[in-house]
Amino acid sequence: MTEKKLAIIATKGTLDWGYPPFILASTAAALGYDTEIFCTFYGLQLLKKDLDLQVSSLGNPGMPMPMPMPVLLQALPGMQRMMTVMMKKKMKDKGVADLGELRDLCQEAEVRLLACQMTVDLFEMDTNEFIDGVDYVGAASFFEFAGDSDICLYI
């Protein structure tokens, strides 16, 4: 029997969008899947050493809020930081692992973390800001893996 494969494309760089790729990848790896996460555009934030990611409800009307909040209030200075603090507290209170811990778990489980080289170049990113163990590849390299994957997710 051949090993199953999971390919994930991560394009978002906010705290709330950082959890799905790492949760799904670590779970798949635990189930025996060969797993890769291809981080591109804003998803490259997930590979930085400093994971100071924010939560934004703008453009995310499904986000549960403690009270209804008009979009205008959400755009006020400091609201994003306040919402991030509230989300981190809720996650801690519920025993949800820190995003950095989930990323470490992925690396321990041999999930391959890929940075889109074209995006790194486009945004003139300093690769010294990224964690160790990241592979810098083009889309063609990811397609070699994704083309043979059993599951391919775009997050």
Automatic annotation (TrEMBL):
Transmembrane segments: none annotated. InterPro entries: DsrE2-like, DsrEFH-like. Pfam families: DrsE_2. SUPFAM superfamilies: DsrEFH-like. PANTHER family: CONSERVED WITHIN P. AEROPHILUM (PTHR34655), PEROXIREDOXIN FAMILY PROTEIN (PTHR34655:SF2). This is Peroxiredoxin family protein. It comes from Leucothrix mucor.
